[in-house]
Amino acid sequence: MSERIGIVGGGILGVAIARALMNSGDFEVTVLEKESRVAAHQTGHNSGVVHAGLYYQPGSLKATLCAQGRELTRDFCQERNLPYRELGKLVVAVTEDELGKLDDIERRARENKVPGIKRLDAKEMREIEPHVAGVAAVHSPETAVVDYSAITEAMAEDVRRAGGRILLGQEVIAVNNACGTVNVSTTAGAHTFDRLIVCAGLQSDVVAKMVGASPSPKILPFRGEYWMMATDKRDLVKGMIYPVPDPRFPFLGVHFTRGVYDEVHVGPNAVPALAREGYTWGQISLKDTFESASWPGAPALAKQHWLMGVREISSSLLKPLYYQQARQFVPELKSRDLTAKSAAGVRAQAWDKDGSLLDDFAVDQVGAVTLLRNAPSPAATSAMSIADYVLENYLKVLPKKTLS
To answer: Could you tell me which of 131, 362, 133 has the C-alpha nearest to residue 229?
Structure first.
């Protein structure tokens, strides 16, 4: 009899794990997704960047899986004729005060063996991005953009063709992890599995509580808001222009990204969302907000990052402040060139009881249940390599790379 494996979450991670399982053994795989489509939340609400691994601590799980995932994503897109555009990324030091941090980025990128990495002076970086301002940059020519929703849909079709099930409209409301099986109740019925994998993103701590796992880390939702550049101003940006990140914060700051379909996004910022799936200021959950405010780590987080919070919230509410952040990198940009806010994303940021924000991937095991507790960027880039990692290290299954 085939082993029955359930997966909670139809984002890119859940679907990638389902696909890897269908290719690697005799499994009966079922994905439970609460929305009416796959890739409905974090997967479908980002700028589509395939990260090359510039920022991550060398030797970390994040750095290793990003490098592997970039290659797997590229190969998958080529095999399925999905768009994959290597537009390149400039990480720009606007002032000489940032050169030390830029040195650190370059060192990490070289240790992570980021392909084609190069340090550029002001003249050289303007040969790549003619309208950019700054004193120096690190260039990653193979940083790419894709359509992660299309990738997830294509992987979902692989799962279905191989005999797996992807059930939509199935919100998990209870999990009983006892007696050698895992019983999962959803809004549409009940399911019994031999093993369960939880890739619930913004709801991962909610499902973890059902399973009986530690309440920590908790998910703190951060909304990232993007502005769109006017169509006739898109030539101001050829590829991607990023700031030198502040190592004190888990967010990169406002940047410019030409998307896979040639739209240019400016952003995101990072503001606390008032609901787990709060894509606008008007979406408010008193329950979610109270749980965040009453979390033991809340005072420490507020004390450490209150100034950043004030700045990010202000720029969210006041376009001129957002615009001022952006024009540091492209001085020719006018406020009117930011035409409208595009669909925002909400990041599932794992948050510990001491107030620290988890930076690396985190996985828990509770009996027959495997829980992905933290999957921050570059999780979409790394989805296929994370799937292989989970299979090998938690399910003890030898993964294969492609479906036959």
So the answer is: 131
Phi/psi at 398 (nearest 5 deg)?
Answer: -80, 115
Cα–Cα distance for residue pair 349/250, rounded to 1 Å: 9
* Cα–Cα distance for residue pair 390/383, rounded to 1 Å: 10
Q: How far is CA 200 from the centre of its chain?
A: 13
Report which of 95, 69, 77 is spatially closest to residue 13, judged by C-alpha positions: 69
Average pLDDT of span 113-130: 97
User: Which H or E run contains 183?
Assistant: strand 181-186
Name the token pair of 200. Answer: 């619930």
For 201-246, write each residue's pLDDT tens digit. 999 999 999 999 999 999 999 898 899 999 999 999 999 999 998 7
At 267-292, the pLDDT tens digits run 888 888 999 999 988 899 999 999 99
Give pTM, 2 decimals: 0.94
Q: What is the mean pLDDT of residues 84-98?
A: 97
CA distances from residue 7 to 109, 198, 227, 278, 386 in whole angstroms, order as listed: 34, 6, 34, 24, 14
Which CATH number describes the domain made up of 3-45+149-217+358-393?
Answer: 3.50.50.60
Q: CATH 3.50.50.60 in the chain, residues?
A: 3-45+149-217+358-393
Q: Residue 132 has which token pair?
A: 């950019």
Which of these CATH numbers, 3.40.50.880, 3.30.9.10, 3.40.50.10490, 3.40.50.10330, describes 86-144+220-351? Answer: 3.30.9.10
